[in-house]
Amino acid sequence: MQQQAADLRAEGDELNGLLETLADGDWDRNTPFKDWTVNQVMQHLHQGDWMQVLTMTDEARFVELSATRRAARERNDGTTGLEGSGFSPARGPALREQWYAYFQKMCDLMSASDPKRRVKWAGPDMSIRMAATARQMESWAHGQDIYDLLHRQRTPTDRIKNIAVLGVKTFGWTFANRGEPPPGDMPYVRLTAPSGEIWDWGDPDESNKVEGSALEFCQVVTQGRNIADVNLTVVGEPAQTWMAVAQCFAGAANDPPAPGHRAW
Fold this sequence. Notes:
264 residues, alpha+beta, Four Helix Bundle (Hemerythrin (Met), subunit A), Nonspecific Lipid-transfer Protein, Chain A, 2 domains, two-stranded antiparallel sheet, 6 strands, 8% strand, globular
């Protein structure tokens, strides 16, 4: 648990450093993520962190607000379901400060918690250990939205292994979330880490595999890249079907960006 919490904190530190370099006008620029502005991306990320703290500290209130949010989405009337809840995100540089302070609070709570403790979430219940990985994944993925907007190169680190693990573990969930059966057996996954280390999952199978850069795999399973825009080797129908729609984050089924949309 200490490693997952440390990796999460390091992910937030990197993102905070990136946000500190933004000009005031950058916060209203549209990222390639659903054309959301940087303000919207960071308000969304801050909301996720806020809800994570809530589920760890007041589960009943979390369940209540989750139901209110679902009802608001169904009404589609412009409300969020969090009105009056105490969640009030700022904008611009003030949002960075607000998000980062709350992010540190979340990391502190996770570091002090039993890693096996189960907590409620938008999808299935999760252990605190998996929740830390999920928040790291969200921080990393939405950080990529901003790197892509600015066309800045990002230096990956081996802490993305947590995200790769989450991507592998959500093979079956990707299809269950779409109301579809898995297209076959879980493919063999063999990835090269930023450090050059080899990470693999499953039994070697040349007829059903995903192989290549761990960075690109993480970009695909977080839907930051279309499979057509990376150099992963994908062999076999189960692997190809999975990589076309892979989704390692909770919530309704989403499709990846169109080919070329985020291929700068």
